[in-house]
Amino acid sequence: MADTQPLNDRLHTAKAEEKESNKPSAHNDNVETQSVSIKPAVGLSTAAAKNQLLELLDSDHTRVLIPPHFDRRSRSLWAILGVTIATIALLLVDGGYTLAKGDPKQTRGIGSVVEAALLLVSVLVTYWVIVHESKLEMRELDMRLRAISQEIRGWTGIYADLRTPQLPTVTTYTVLRDGVWRDVPTLLLVEGDTIALAYGEAAPCLISLRTVDKALNGETKFTLDRGQKFTSETMRTWHPSACIPKRSGGSGDRNAWDPSVAGHSTLTGRILFHVRATPLSNHLVQISLHHQRTGRSVLQNQMRVVIRLCALRIMPALCITALIANIVIYGVVSAKQESHYGMGVEVIIGKTVYVMFPFACTVLWPVLWIVSRIFTNSCEVVLFDTLQRSKTEYEDTDNIDEFDVEALPPTKDVTVGIGAIIDRMRWLWWNCDFRTLSRSSNLTETLGNITVICSIDKEGTIAEPFCTPEQIVVPDAGDDYAILDVGEQQVGTEIRTFIIDEGWEKFLPSLRPLGLDCSLSTSAHKLGKGNMNVTHRRHNHMHRHGKVLPSQDTCLCRIGKAIGFTNEDLSRYSKLKEIDVFAPFHEATDALVAKDVFCAASFTSTVMQTEDGPGTLQMLTDGNVDLVLGMCLDYFDGSAIRPLDDHTIAMYYSLYLNALQQDLQCLAFSYRPLSVDTDAIKWPGWEASTADTPNAQGRFIDLHLSKAALQAALDEQSSASLVWAESTGSVEDAGTSVLSKTAPVETTVGIKDKDLVVAMDKPTLSEEPDVKDRSASKSQTADSVNSSRSNNNENDANEQTAQYDPDGGHERFGFSDGDSQDAATHSSSLDDLPDHLTEEARKALLRSKAKFSRPMRSDETLGLDYSKAQLEHLYSEEDMLRDAVSEQIFLGLATFAYDPKTDVCDFIEDLDIAGIRFVYFSRASGRQSKAFAERLGLETDWNTCILLSSATDGIRGDGYIEDHDIKARLPRGIENIRQHLEEVDDIPLQISLFAECTPASTREMIKISQEYGDVVCCIGSALKDSNTLTFAAADLAVGVEPIPHFNRVFYGGGQGSLGAAMAQHPVDAVPGDDAAAAIDSAEASAVALRSAVLSGHDMANDGSISTSGALVTQYALGAALTCIPCPLFLQHDTSLYMLMQVISEARRLVGCVQQTAIFLACTCLALAGVNFVAALCLLPPVLPGYMVLWILWVVAPLLGITLLFAPHDENIMSTMPLRNHAHMSDLPRFSVYAAIRMLPPVALTLVVYVTALAKLLDGSPEVGHLSSVLGRKDWLLLSPRDQWAVLAAQTYAMVAFAFHCACVSSTLMFRTRTWLEFVPVRNVAWVVGSAVSLVLTFALAALLLAFGDAAVAHVRWYTYVLAFAGPVVLLPLQDLCKLHDKKKWTRLQKLAKLEFKTKLGLHSPL
User: Fold this and answer.
1) Burial grade of 39 (CB within 10 A; 0-12, 13-18, 19 or more)
2) Distance between CA atoms of residues 1101 and 120, nearest Å
3) CA dist 1025 to 160, 286, 799, 1123, 1125, Å?
């Protein structure tokens, strides 16, 4: 009802309900309330909590700066910088000397000075860009914290209701804010908060128990540290008296930690604590300590190897060789030819400096690298946003066979505009990318080389947030049971549940009461009128009183529909009372803890009123198997109510244990018919309610059973004064108890006729529900059921339906086909049956105690479980309800499992094709982890699971104890993984499943994988604060919304101006049926308002964490703080296939960048080689400095940029990614490829230069005599005609080299595809880029030749042929290199796939 009210009305209503619930009740309830004076818990306001968080985030102590990837101590960097500075100095010396000594004036001296100035400017520009980029990268994480601070500052205090069950992947706490109890994420808690902790929950930080005094001063000794679980044993240690449930009519002090005493009875069962520290403070400290920059990517390491080769080997070798050669030439050749000694500067310095010049020009290439990173990151981010906003489905291409195991993964057909990419680039150039952390995470390079994708969570991330029914177990005739498989299918927008097994209708007599229980007591909607598509969380109050299993918090109305109940059937019932039973000090809870399930055993009982009359009631129960079975003495097999003896209960308990081993959650169902004199009930809330006005609050009941109480019950079974809630086993004082006033208890095991009539004649159990669309056999089954029901006292069990043994029906419970009977018989052994579930113990506890419900032997009370006389003797409603939930009739079991999300299994399968290993880190035991891994499609046979918990922990037992679990030598414990890898084998790097993981062991395993070359992408819940450090340890982290209808933080300066728009659409004020529409409306309003505030600002390019709107709730802020290290963030309904498409694009971009880097490096080396050969031949430089600058700063980058637009290779997602180690192991082979590829351009450029120069010089010397002619001339005395002749020849050489560069670039779009396999004109960007570069080069050449007096007409035709006919030789050589490389690459790919798929040591029993 609160969900349909506006936010302000809801606050007032909640406070009014609190006041109403705290009023003293009738009879003796007011005695205790008046005797205690404890101030109610007040808590903090949202504004006060915000101030504390902002003070922490805005302080200088929380600054997190990441060292940039640029290594300023790199020897390669200093080598290139040294060469550049030396080149600038030598150019100035050579230019100044040439200008001073040249006669006539040598114009090349001016060129040398200009070239030196350009190099100096490039050094300064590069330095500024590097410093600017390093600052932006270093401050990315810190700016993200500042952006979150702005969002918290603008938060309007909207709190959203959780619409899923309590999940382990969502760490929230019940916190008192603004006088209302809210679900608040851990990282939004602050010091001074009051939280209501449930048994089994872990402390979010240092917390202290709320006591009458000293607790607020921080002096109490009852505290819990961060991560410490609050268990019943903790409370026993602190306050033994708190373990004894007090009667409402008793006397004595009540405890201040009890929410009902503090004024909050709706949370009775929880314990009040004070928060002593702010969790965010420790969270930020841990981030600053553990978060380091992402290691160098594979591409960066490859480029580092190539740069070292060029800068530390090739460059020094060429420069030193050129210097020595020029010295020899000047000292020997010139001396013999009696040349002028003044040209020594020109020969030694000038010719050497132009060999160094191409390497000096690379000082500007870091800018090109940064631009390319910004471009590729922009492409990835824009694509990611586009895919996340797109509502289309992922589809296979038309030519893909769906049965092809090597088929490529499906994709979305989306279009990414170049305008959006350019806008994003412009934004990234000037701003910190605090939204995707693209700089510090090496976003594109990391995505392009991912080798491992690991999931550290299950519920809500790779599995659905709601557990789904797997199987139903109902009693059958002959002390047997039937196991029915349950499935789900999508029908339009609705998910329908159905029973898979054929002929299941024969079990309808047993299924009907269980189906009615599922339909009524677990309903998430108004009875008979609900919309089941919005949410399937129960609308009960169990989660307010304590921590429950997700299966207990999930609506099961679909099971009722599958059995046949319709809305019309359910409309006959009205909810009268909800009884929420918890037993934190019960042996059932200890049994759960032993199974590593940390929550109190509990069940919920719903008292339903039918149309038969106010006194005819049905109590339907579901909950913990251990606890529910302990409340039952009989079971219903579809025809009669039979005693639940030790053999039968052991049989069901064994099924329960086997279900837990299979990673299934299990619920038990029971019922009890009640006949109550409702007119005599003196407590409020027992008035008849309708479907439109259900009861607003559940009644909390605390059950207690210790070993002492159990022993006392067994010893004093016939005594009427045994105290049900006594923890020490002592007998309660008869003066204060009404137990002595009751009649002795009947201890017979037989079934009373009245009980049988009440159980069988109720319309809910005996009348056939309206099951639509059934076959003809359905009606036949119904007739047989009615016939058997009319003679239920006469029919024998053998007349019931035959034993049901469906194929595979027992697999979930640990049984195989064909041996169900033997397995059931064996499993029903009494060895594993707990003491409190034995028949003797149950009778002692349920019948030997004072039984308020025993009918008085008088006519007026005949047939009533609770008569007026009995009700008058009861102290409180709690006493009556505690008694009412006992002596129930067992109906059956249901198991539940977490199904993988849509496409997850296919996604994992396609990862295998792409050479990416999927790893699941599970918190559960090895057996349970394997069960879920099998649903994911992971390998679960021999040697496929490693336990990361230590054998000495004592948490999980001995580990590998089953023969079928382990046959090889596997390491146990994270501390033994490294030793195993060094001394045994690499199985830990091959398997896909790790069990019994903690956050610390998960982080350590990720680091081990990285040490062995894996690039790890981590997927986890965005609302689990312990994931943050694991996110920080991975190379790339992806936060996933674990719950639907999630509202994300919209980074971009806070939401102060948007508060009015958001206040109009508070999430928790939206009716359940209209929640999705209201959220869409609110987000649309926020987007429109933001567009108005940020005029002209693209939604996809403003640095926001999401593009879905500005509606911010506490979950959005908590997720933002948890995902501080996460570059990417997936919405709940986003398919993981989006990662595949993003990875595919990243692989393409990384390959393009590699080819571009190869092209630029080859161009630089070719230019250096051309001038080096010219120096050895006594010729002027083939290309002067400004032409080299034109080639390396204009032509080559322009052609290289076009390579970034190469189309997708259809096989890109079936190739094995490179591991991040042993980089460029085939460097000699690649060096040979580079030499062969650039040899034709070098040779042809030299030939064009020599032939043109020979025809343009005075006298037109022969080509063979050109060296001797120029060697005898003093270059300082060259005539203007000779100067222009050299310039014209250099211009011809520049045009030829630029043309050949364009030809070479056309062959570098793909590594292994030949020119014929992919015609480069299909790359439109390359066509445009090459045309522009050639046109600009021709324009520059025309400009240079226009003002000279060289007779270009003298240049012979073969010079032009050589300049432009080079592709005839060049292209075949390029393809020959590719074919040879393809042969080697294919062999390496096959070897990598063989190693990836043939995992030595796995699947082996030895």
Assistant:
1) exposed
2) 35
3) 18, 12, 58, 8, 12
Identify which of 751, 602, 767, 755 has the alpha carbon closest to the alpha carbon of residue 674: 755
Whole-angstrom Cα distance, residue 959 to residue 946?
9
Q: Are 870 and 738 a contacting pair, CB within 8 Å?
A: no
Residue type, 305: V
CA dihedral 1129, 1134, 1136, 1142 (to 10 degrees): -60
How far apart CA 1033 and CA 1125 sit, in angstroms, is 9
Name residue 454's beta-bridge partners: 919, 1018
**Residue 676 carries which DSSP code?**
B
> What SS3 class is residue 499?
strand
Task: Quote the pTM value.
Answer: 0.83
E strands of 962-1044, at which residues? 993-995, 1016-1021, 1036-1040
Closest alpha carbon to 1022 in 907, 1131, 905, 1133: 1131
Enter the tokens of residue 981: 């890898």
Phi, psi of 101, rounded to the nearest 5 degrees? -100, -15
What percent helix, strand, coil does the chain show, rounded to 5? 50, 10, 40
- The arithmetic mean of pLDDT across residues 492-506, rounded, is 84
* CA-based nearest residue to 1251, from 1363, 1368, 1173: 1363
Q: Do the bridges between strand 993-995 and strand 946-947 make them parallel or antiparallel, or are there none, so unpaired?
A: parallel
Per residue in 1041-1087, pLDDT (tens digit) is 988 765 555 444 333 333 333 333 333 333 333 444 444 444 444 44
Query: DSSP per residue over 147-192, as a string?
Result: HHHHHHHH-----PPP-S---TT--EEEEEETTEEEEEEGGG--TT
Q: How confident is the model at residue 35 (pLDDT cuts 50, 70, 90)?
A: very low
* Residue 1292 CA from chain centroid, whole number: 59
With beta carbons less than 8 A apart as the criterion, state whether 1064 and 1110 touch. Answer: no
Rounded-to-integer distance, Cα 509 and Cα 784, Å = 10
Structure tokens given for 418? 């170049």
Buried b (16+ CB within 10 A) or exposed e, 173-203: bbbbbbbbbbbbbbbbbbbebbbbbbbbbbb
Angle between helices 926-936 and 904-913 (to 10 degrees): 80
Q: State how far the alpha carbon of 654 is from the alpha carbons of 252, 603, 745, 831, 953, in Å.
A: 43, 20, 31, 10, 27
Do you find a cis peptide bond into 104, omega within 30 degrees of 0?
yes
Rg (CA), the chain: 40
Match 């034109």 to its residue by tokens: 1190
On the 0-12 / 13-18 / 19+ scale of CB atoms within 10 A, 909 is middle
C-alpha to C-alpha distance for 396 and 910, rounded to whole angstroms: 12
At how many degrees (to 10) do helices 1227-1256 and 298-309 cross?
A: 50
CB atoms within 10 A of CB 294: 23
Q: Which residues contact 350 (CB under 8 A, 6 or more apart)?
A: 94, 98, 112, 1181
d(CA 998, CA 1017): 18
CA distance 510 to 478: 13
What would the pLDDT profile of 1198-1230 be if each residue is shown by its tens digit? Answer: 999 999 998 888 888 889 999 888 888 888 888
220-260 pLDDT, tens digit per residue, is 678 899 988 888 888 878 876 666 555 444 434 457 788 88
DSSP for 800-856 reads SPPPP--TTTTGGGT--TT-HHHHHHHHT-GGGS-GGGSHHHHHHHHTSS--TTSPP
What the block records as the tokens of 701 is 């009941």
Tell how far CA 922 is from the center of its chain. 14
